[in-house]
Amino acid sequence: MVFEAxxxxxxxxxxxxxxxxGSRGHGSNDGDGxxxxxGYNRAMSELKFDDRGLMPxxxxxxxxxxxxxxxFVNREAIARTVETGRATFFSRxxxxxxxxxxxxxxxxxxxxxxxxxxxxTLLVLAEPAGNSCHTGKPSxxxxxxxxxxxxxxxxxxxxxxxRLEAEIQSRRASTAEKSYTxxxxxxxxxxIGDKVREEAxxxxxxxxxxxxxxxxxxxxxxxxxxxxxxxSRGVPWRAVIDVLAKRAGTSGHAxxxxxRKPSNT
Length: 265
Prior knowledge:
Layout: E1 11-13, E2 16-18, H1 41-44, E3 55-61, E4 67-73, H2 75-84, E5 88-91, E6 96-99, E7 108-115, E8 122-128, E9 143-146, E10 149-152, H3 160-173, H4 180-187, H5 189-209, H6 212-233, H7 237-247, H8 252-259
Parallel strand pairs: 3-8
Antiparallel strand pairs: 1-2, 3-4, 5-6, 7-8, 9-10
Helix pairs in contact: 3-4, 5-6
């Protein structure tokens, strides 16, 4: 479920929350979190906290899907998150509210809040401003469980495309025997551009006349060579997803028109 002000959804605009029109005027001070709960009591009543008034909250990068951290929230922490637009939690050891990044500046700007099917776990979709783990790593999940051992990894748990991006970068810096990726990166922008055009043409022909497996294979070639091109320019894959996210909900015709260069007439 998406967390609504009146039915499990919260729109976060800029630095704060903007309840749906149907939720305005329904709030009251219930004594738990004070005015932070104004307008959200109906939604709060559907959430299921444990006997300590807590529930786990999982934070996920809203663009890449990377799980950044897991903490606990109570009613006040959720209300402050909604009010400020920044992820806020409850510290069980200190017994107090805390905001991620309040000292480091590595805040989590919340885009959406979701609640699971049992309404007892919160999912926070956020825009991370820096590393999220207190160890200084991007994610708290960098320790892999293998058999009976827990091993620290150089790369935290990420989705496959992010892992592929990291692998491409590592090939660029590798001093080992040359790989295709390293050779392509060293060949320069013109060669990379030629390969992107070549693979895009093969994909276009596959779309027109070949089977689904072939289409998927050619699409994979295009994506790989695009990622090599991005790596050659130092442009992260996340930046591409960000552009797509910003275009969402905009007419394709209008978006293209906005990119046209003005005439000199």
